[in-house]
Amino acid sequence: MPERSPETHVIDFRAAEQLLAARDPRGAVKLLDPLIAAHPENTAARLLRARAFFLAAQLRPAELEFQVVLEREPDNAFAHFALGRTLERADRADEAKRHFRLAAALDPRPDYVAAARFDS
């Protein structure tokens, strides 16, 4: 495969966003894998790939990718919320609750607060 240029990586990232919006998470992962291999520090690409894994019901890869994002951006409310959803789908509700509560504390959006279930 020929070497990819920075412009090509941007095009692939945008195309992966479109594939995810069109409910083709596996197609998005295929575009993101080489981008992340070339730029493992790219948190935005990792977050997008985590979302794609989640939508493809690949829960363990999604969990690992969300964890990488949170290591780099511990104040990323969306990543905490999405990791919570991932853990919830994997029947790990106690672990999920912690991330839902962190998400709600960082950003009190109604969906984050509802998921956090502070009243229970």
TrEMBL record:
InterPro entries: TPR-like_helical_dom_sf (IPR011990), TPR_rpt (IPR019734). Keywords: TPR repeat. The keyword Membrane does not apply. TPR repeats lie at residues 77-110. Pfam families: TPR_19. The keyword Protein transport does not apply. This is Tetratricopeptide repeat protein. It comes from Actinacidiphila epipremni.
